[in-house]
Write a structure and sequence with these properties.
76 residues, mainly alpha, 34% helix
Length: 76
């Protein structure tokens, strides 16, 4: 009986938390303001790679250009 009461209480708490989260207004994301867009030129950069070697825009660009992929990780 205690187990059922605990489950009902937890379910109620989760329902309230979910309702509060869903009712909050979300901020609109404007993709054009996030960074360089497809086809847009990026500024020159100098960064180190995973081996500690410096890399620039020119050093990583090939004859057909370059595709940059920015990936966020939950492991930062």
């Amino acid at each position: 009986m205690r187990n059922i009461a605990l489950q009902v209480t937890l379910a109620s708490c989760f329902s309230i938390i979910a309702a509060l989260g869903l009712s909050a207004e979300r901020q609109r994301i404007v993709v054009a303001e996030l960074g360089p867009q497809v086809g847009e030129a990026v500024p020159d950069f100098k960064l180190t790679d995973q081996f500690g070697e410096p890399q620039t825009l020119d050093s990583v660009s090939g004859p057909n250009g370059l595709m940059l992929l920015f990936h966020r990780s939950a492991d930062w």
